[in-house]
Amino acid sequence: MSATIALNSTMLRATSVMASLVQAALMAAGVLLLVGLFALSQGDRRLVQHLETLLPAGEVASSASYGTDLTETGADENAVDPLTPRMRKALENVSRRYRVSSGALEPIFVAAESAGRDHRLDPLLIVAVIAVESRFNPFSESVMGAQGLMQVMPRYHQDKLPDGADELSFLDPVINVRIGARILKESIRRNGGLVSGLQQFAGASDDAEQRYAAKVLAEKARLEASVQRTPQREA
Predict the structure, then answer these.
(1) 0.70 cut: is pTM over it?
(2) Taking 70 as the threshold, does the pLDDT of residue 232 lie above it?
(3) HSE, side-chain direction, 13 A CA sphere, residue 161
(4) Which of 79, 110, 123, 192, CA to CA, is 20 to 30 A from 46?
(5) Does 71 lie in the same domain as 152?
(6) 12 and 98 share a domain?
(7) Percentages helix, strand, coil for the chain, rounded to the nearest 5?
């Protein structure tokens, strides 16, 4: 009986020692892992290479991938602005004036800039039309059925939808801007000038006072003035 008790006591001590050793090893591995992460964040590959001889392969790979995420995050912070400085300043002005978040406005401005390049239109003209037509509400719809940011009439422009898009796509901000810019360009070309083109775009060609065109051009002038007042960032 005493021999059994002594054997059990010895096994318990051995188990306790083994557990302590495992715990110490895990703590050491954790410390080394943290050091490795810090080294990666500082770009010190020599220390990481040394850690590869001390840590299991899975833990080294984990620390390496985490370090890559840190690097990618830093790269994102330095990413090229998708907008020109002129459009970025206009966006900031619109965000303040219309009380719309800059994050929600950015895809709209990027689409306007892209469509402006494609159709040789001033992107601020496109933004001015959006301001007048919908005040930057992508779900705006008129009593006549015009939809979206640039108030496109779906029944007249189904042929301009991308392949596979359905009628709900007229409410997609990017698609709506691209289609609206194309319609605007066609109206200007067909009518021989900006003012008459704007009037036709709005379905107001018979307005002798050309009030719609005056409203859009006044909005564009305000945007231009806001850009000129604010110092632009370097490209």
Answers:
(1) no
(2) no
(3) 17
(4) 79
(5) no
(6) no
(7) 70, 0, 25
